[in-house]
Design a protein that fits this description.
This protein has 386 residues and is α+β, with helices and mostly antiparallel strands. 49% of the residues lie in helices and 14% in strands. It is built from twelve helices and ten strands. It is globular. This is Acyl-CoA/acyl-ACP dehydrogenase.
Length: 386
């Protein structure tokens, strides 16, 4: 396994970093203060083709790998920005690519690649079901060549900046299936045509993360917009989660390295009691430990990406990469905050903004405790804990 970036990957990293340099810290502080979606940044990413890197060339995309996409997102976050407002399009379109019909691919993928259509919204989690996805209650009743959908979703992000939503719904009720993962279907919802059938309540959070509660009432969705077979949607969603874990881990690693970059620079320059504070082991050792942990998590991320790009489904590696990256990033965030001291709380130094962002990956898009439970019973063969 080669641990060095290829020439093409270095070119990707440098090009993305150059684009990010046009969006300085002031831009991100303003978006954060107003809890605004970074429209200009996402548009620039789309126009440059970075959001379509995983779409095959035959559909107008970049024909790249998950490793390429991971590098793009890591670079964005290591530059001080955030890839979260745009990253969903990279993995949601994978459901269409792997399981959609030829007609769906021809209809959607070229427009996504051309940055004229956004597939950013992902409707899975529900208020009562939480992480127990099989317990969702949103239901799609078949009426001729349409489904009529009723239900509710929560933590549906980027809804206001998406043309389509990938929606997981029941087509057979939980009580009527033999296997709890059966009876779930995936629908492509054209939000431009949904009208009053979907109502949205924005949820304010401690970071600039545009997310919502969505209520659906008598929404009509053409059967031709169903992805794959009816009732098999759970496995379609799962097939994309490994890519999601890898990409999220890459963003988190970017943040962690950003913390280390900023804190070590400050620790070399900040002089107290006649010496740089980075000379003190109480400052130096936490940064060194966090850096080592970030590098270890990065290796697991690259292993997961390599297996995914080879056609495997690296469940352990992808989940472990997200787990390790989130923990290492949190350690780096705390080490950076301690290094900056009181200045870390000042907005102009950026640490406080990224510090708030660093807490999210511990609980989302999957809680670390669920990853540990997965490793415990799926990998180690221990009794199932839930």
């Amino acid at each position: 396994m080669d641990f060095e970036l290829t020439d093409d990957q270095r070119a990707i990293r440098d090009a993305v970093a150059e684009l990010c340099s046009r969006f300085p810290s002031e831009y991100w502080r303003e978006r954060d203060a107003k809890l605004e979606y970074p429209v200009e940044f996402v548009d620039a990413l789309g126009k440059a083709g970075w959001l379509s890197v995983l779409i095959p060339e035959e559909y107008g995309g970049g024909g790249g790998t998950v490793a390429d996409a991971a590098l793009i997102l890591e670079t964005i976050n290591r530059s001080g920005g955030t890839g979260v407002p745009a990253h969903a399009q990279m993995y949601t379109m994978g459901t269409v690519l792997r399981h959609g019909s030829d007609e769906q691919k021809q209809r959607l993928l070229p427009e996504i690649a051309a940055n004229t259509l956004r597939l950013q919204a992902f409707g899975v989690t529900e208020p009562d079901a939480g992480s127990d996805t099989t317990r969702i209650r949103t239901f799609a009743a078949r009426e001729g060549d349409h489904y009529v959908v009723n239900g509710a979703k929560i933590w549906t992000s980027r809804f206001q900046h998406s043309d389509y939503m990938l929606l997981l719904t029941r087509t057979t009720r939980y009580e009527d299936v033999e296997k709890k993962t059966d009876g779930l279907s995936v629908l492509l919802v054209d939000l431009r045509e949904a009208g009053d059938a979907i109502s949205v309540r924005p949820i304010r959070t401690m970071t600039s993360h545009e997310t919502n509660e969505v209520r659906i009432e008598n929404l009509r969705v053409p059967v031709q917009n169903r992805i794959g077979e009816e009732g098999k949607g759970f496995r379609y969603i799962l097939s994309g989660l490994n890519a999601e874990r890898i990409l999220v881990a890459s963003e988190v690693l970017g943040d962690g390295f950003w913390f280390i970059d900023r804190a070590t620079e400050y620790a070399r320059e900040r002089v107290v009691f006649g010496r740089p504070i980075g000379q003190n082991q109480g400052v130096q050792f936490p940064l060194a430990q966090a850096y080592a942990d970030l590098e270890a998590a990065s290796l697991m991320r690259w292993k997961a990406a390599a297996k995914f790009d080879a056609g495997e489904q690296p469940g352990f590696e992808a989940n472990a990469a997200k787990l390790l990256a989130s923990k290492a990033n949190w350690a780096a965030a705390n080490a950076a905050m301690d290094t900056f001291g009181g200045y870390g709380l000042a907005e102009e130094f950026e640490i406080e903004r990224k510090f708030r962002e660093a807490r999210l990956p511990m609980v989302a898009p999957v809680n670390n405790n669920l990853i540990l439970a997965y490793i415990g019973h799926q990998v180690l063969g221990l009794p199932k804990s839930y």
